Amino acid sequence: MKDLEERLKTIADKRNEKQQIETHLAIIKSRLNLHQLELKTFKEELEELDDKMNIEEPSNLIKLFNKILGSQDDTHYERERQTFLLTHLNYKNCLDRIQTIEFEVGILEDKLTSYHGVEEQYQKLLSEKTSQLKFRHKELATEIILLESAIRNHAYQQQQIIEAYDVGKELIQLLTTLYNELVELSSISLLQATEIRNHQTVINLPIQKRRQAKSLQLSLQIISRLCDRYADELYDVSDRFDMDYTPFTSTISTFLAHFYDGFISDYIRRSQLKICLSHIDMTLAKMHRINNMLQDDLTKTKKQQTINQEKLERMVLRNEIY
């Protein structure tokens, strides 16, 4: 058991070194990005100044008269030239800093390769010691099991939230597409030439508009299924993890009924789509709110999972096997 303790301590130290390098590397890369943006700005300024100087540069004869009589244009040109030289110097200094940082990044990235597999070894040894502690220390076993259960619960909760969020994201895209299609459709009059068939008035629709109608029907079928699935996913998250999305799910799940009511009363009767478009707008607004809530809850549960993982790691590393 002492051998396990020593191996875990050694690999834990290496893991800490690796994490320090990764943190330092992330900071340096952030600085590198800023300098690259700065370099781009200097380059654009140089190109702009170069163009202005090529246009404004006076001829030799004019320079002679300006020297004798004095000229504001000549003074302005000299000021532009000085600005160009200063900007060029800043550009060179920025380029030098970028090259230095890129060299440092290369060194750190090469160094990180020597820590390949450290995290996997650490997790394996940590799991092995956790099992030993649960087996040999009954007073710690209950606390460890509770923490492990909480961590698994957070992982499952994240999975459920992500599934609901992904369905919502897909549904938002489909509803946005539907909205745009309806806006286009509203510019086309539905009423066409009519004829009498079997003593009933029948509207003749061209092939193109029949295809549009079939496409709209297919879109609504897909959206209807996704609305039901989204409501189910939200219900699962609300029911299992005590998160309340109920005020929104009822509106989402009845979207199609409201849509058809608006479509019939709005478009069929008055050749308009104001009610339909307004209903889609309200539904989209609520869905954006729901998905924002899901993202917030996902962040919270990830944070709590990290806290419990760190607490479990400290407990396992601090206690010895005997």
Q: How would you sum up the major sheet?
A: 2 strands, antiparallel
Morphology: flat
Nearest-integer average pLDDT: 78
Strand/helix succession: HHHHHEEHHHH
Going by helix content, strand content and strand pairing, the class is mainly alpha
What is the level 1 CATH name of the largest domain?
Answer: Mainly Alpha
Supply the number of helical segments: 9
At CATH level 3, the topology of the largest domain is: Four Helix Bundle (Hemerythrin (Met), subunit A)
Q: Which range does the strand content fall in?
A: under 5%
How many structural domains? 2
Low-pLDDT stretches are: 67-72, 189-197
Strand order of the largest sheet: 1-2
Number of strands: 2
**CATH architecture assignment name of the largest domain:** Up-down Bundle
Radius of gyration: 34 Å
How far the N terminus sits from the C terminus, by CA atoms, comes to: 8 Å
Question: In words, what does this structure look like?
Answer:
This protein is mainly α and 322 residues long. It has two domains: 2-136, Helix Hairpins, CATH 1.10.287; 158-304, Up-down Bundle (Four Helix Bundle (Hemerythrin (Met), subunit A)). 87% of the residues lie in helices and 2% in strands. It has nine helices and two strands, in the order αααααββαααα. It has a two-stranded antiparallel sheet. Helix 1 (2-56) packs antiparallel against helix 4, helix 5 (138-186) packs antiparallel against helix 9 and helix 6 (207-241) runs antiparallel to helix 7 (246-253). The longest helix is centred in the N-terminal third of the chain and has 55 residues, at 2-56. The chain is flat and about 75 Å long. The model is unreliable at 67-72 and 189-197 (pLDDT under 50).
